[in-house]
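Onboarding guide, step 5: your first structure request.
Type a short instruction followed by the sequence, for example:

Predict the 3D structure of this protein.
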Amino acid sequence: MKKPRIVSRADAVAAIGYDGDAALVDGSARRLYEGLSTADLAERGFFRAATISALSSASPDGELGLVARVYNERAKASYAPEALPRLFGVARVTASRTLVL
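The system replies with structure tokens like these:
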């Protein structure tokens, strides 16, 4: 069995769930999000993907702030950046393998 590792940003932004030790990734979403920055994802309304992208970045606090600002403007809400992972049901996780569907 492979050693668990942090799921890559490319896989995490398109993950649809986890089955045992495997990350399940939507292949068409992965292609759609490929090359888009956290800001691009947020501006296009892909807030779940933008949030996990922010968590995967070198500066998660700053990027979560960016996603919160865009989301709050559009939704007329006032979520704190640290509330977004719970709001969108995302977290940094480990998986031994990735299955692209």
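Each response can be followed by summary notes, for example: The chain has a mean pLDDT of 95.
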